[in-house]
């Protein structure tokens, strides 16, 4: 699946300062001077200050400011961008900003990632144990399909999408689809889960919950009529 990480909120227009206790020189100015950092589509960053606007290339370790152009120094703008990337206030050069399709939280994803994305609280990993909110049944995730639930057609011959099923009416049509198999349909071989022959089912992401986070989150009543079949693995 596409990995995503939660992103801290950061203003694209308002200049801000960062805690500067214990710093000096350019490192102090990088934190104490008001700046606004904004990522560009070419993987560089615009840095707005009270005295000018500059473009930082973090990968090339360069900046368009006079301090870098004249002295070749690692200027405060370059340092500020590195700080905000390291603190997850801004995406890295290989990332772009997106939002979680379930909760709307800002996330940073690989630059070429497409389709709906999930934050760390709502993403799933292959092999993870989950529970169906409708039936309460335990499943094992096989993959995350980064396509909308109203775009993924179920391979049962009905021509319906995952979102078309009545039991998925309470979950977002725009959410990515998670494929999983019911725990009772798989077997363990030499300590490893064997999925061959197990039928995979498809769910909007928010319909499944993490087993290790289910304390106090009781499943809603439901039954096996809520299953959405896909082609067999």
Notes on the protein architecture:
There is one protein chain. The chain has 233 residues and is mostly beta strands. The chain has 2 domains: 5-86, no CATH class; 129-232, no CATH class. 11% of the residues lie in helices and 29% in strands. It is built from 3 helices and 15 strands. The strands form 4 sheets. The protein has a 6-stranded antiparallel sheet, with no helix packed on it. Strands 2-3-4-5 form a 4-stranded antiparallel sheet. The protein has a 3-stranded antiparallel sheet with strand order 1-7-6, with no helix packed on it. The longest helix is centred in the middle third of the chain and has 11 residues, at 76-86. Mean pLDDT is 86; it is low at 216-233.
Layout of SSEs?
Blueprint: E1 5-6, H1 25-32, E2 36-39, E3 45-48, E4 53-57, E5 62-63, H2 66-71, H3 76-86, E6 95-99, E7 106-110, E8 129-132, E9 138-148, E10 176-182, E11 187-189, E12 192-194, E13 199-204, E14 208-210, E15 229-232
Antiparallel strand pairs: 1-7, 2-3, 3-4, 4-5, 6-7, 8-9, 8-14, 9-10, 10-13, 11-12, 13-15
């Amino acid at each position: 699946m596409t990995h995503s990480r939660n992103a801290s909120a950061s203003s694209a227009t308002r200049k801000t300062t960062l805690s500067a206790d214990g710093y000096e020189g350019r490192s102090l100015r990088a934190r104490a001077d008001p700046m606004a950092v904004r990522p560009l589509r070419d993987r560089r960053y615009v840095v707005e200050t009270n005295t000018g606007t500059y473009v930082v290339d973090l990968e090339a370790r360069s900046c368009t400011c006079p301090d870098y152009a004249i002295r070749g120094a690692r200027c405060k703008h370059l340092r500020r961008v590195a700080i905000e990337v390291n603190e997850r206030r801004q995406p890295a050069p290989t990332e772009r900003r997106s939002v979680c399709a379930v909760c709307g939280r800002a996330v940073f994803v690989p630059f070429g990632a497409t389709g709906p994305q999930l934050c760390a609280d709502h993403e799933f990993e292959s092999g993870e144990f989950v529970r169906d909110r409708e039936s309460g049944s335990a499943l094992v995730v096989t993959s995350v399909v980064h396509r909308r639930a109203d775009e993924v057609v179920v391979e049962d011959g009905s021509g319906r999408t995952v979102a078309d099923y009545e039991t998925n009416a309470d979950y977002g049509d725009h959410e990515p689809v998670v494929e999983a198999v019911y725990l009772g349909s798989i077997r363990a071989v030499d300590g490893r889960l064997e999925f061959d022959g197990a039928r995979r089912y498809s769910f909007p992401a928010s319909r499944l919950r993490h087993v290790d986070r289910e304390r106090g989150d009781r499943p809603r009543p439901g039954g096996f009529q809520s299953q959405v079949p896909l082609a067999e693995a």
